[in-house]
Amino acid sequence: MIHPLLHLIATKPQLLGDHVEAYAELVGAEVGKTSKMWISRVVFYAIALFLLSAGLIFAGVALMLWAVVPPDNMNSPWLLIVVPLVLFVGSVGRVYKMDLTGKILGAFGRSGRMPGTLDSIHQLACPDEKTLYLANLYASRLDKWVTE
Fold first, then answer.
1. pLDDT at 133 (0 to 100)
2. CA separation for the pair 134, 81 (Å, rounded)
3. In whole angstroms, what is the distance from residue 108 CA to residue 143 CA?
4. Is residue 20 within 8 Å of residue 9, measured between CB atoms?
5. Is the pTM of this model over 0.70?
6. How big is the CA angle at 68 (ends 88 and 129), to the nearest 5 degrees?
7. pLDDT in tens, the chain (148 residues)
8. 86-125 b/e with 16+ CB inside 10 Å = b?
9. Count of domains in the chain?
């Protein structure tokens, strides 16, 4: 007596070909999806590296401006901290709270995609000293952080 599977393969070999073809399509789709994910990840890491280097450049410029121009003569001295900070937040996934002298008062957040983490910040809004809104691009959400 022949096993039913062997009997089916012997009588209808096209079914085996269809089955192998379906698995090949499935593997092709998974490889395509995975390659797109890796390409987007590499692009995001390249953007993060660019933002980190641009943040370092702007931080250096801000330090030079701070050394040359007295803070009393500046219209908005806080911009010297905020502009590099936005670039750093986009690259490292962490937010640092500083005063106008550059002293770090606190830090929060860590890199990741889960709630309570930061990943690819592309917008920042600060309505007051204790509230911060961060638009998280890769996680597709808006986070509200309240500091003390």
1. 86
2. 17
3. 13
4. no
5. no
6. 45
7. 678 888 888 888 888 889 889 999 999 999 998 898 888 778 878 887 887 788 778 777 877 777 778 777 777 777 777 766 666 665 566 677 777 776 777 777 777 777 777 777 777 788 887 788 888 777 778 888 887 7
8. bbbbbbbbebebeeeeeeeeeeebeeeeeeeebbbbeeee
9. 1
Domain around 82: 4-146
Q: HEC string of the chain?
A: CCCHHHHHHHHCHHHHHHHHHHHHHHHHHHHHHHHHHHHHHHHHHHHHHHHHHHHHHHHHHHHHHHHHCCHHHCCCCCHHHHHHHHHHHHHHCCEEEECCCCCEEEEECCECCCCCCECCEEEEECCCCCEEEEEECCCCEEEEEECC
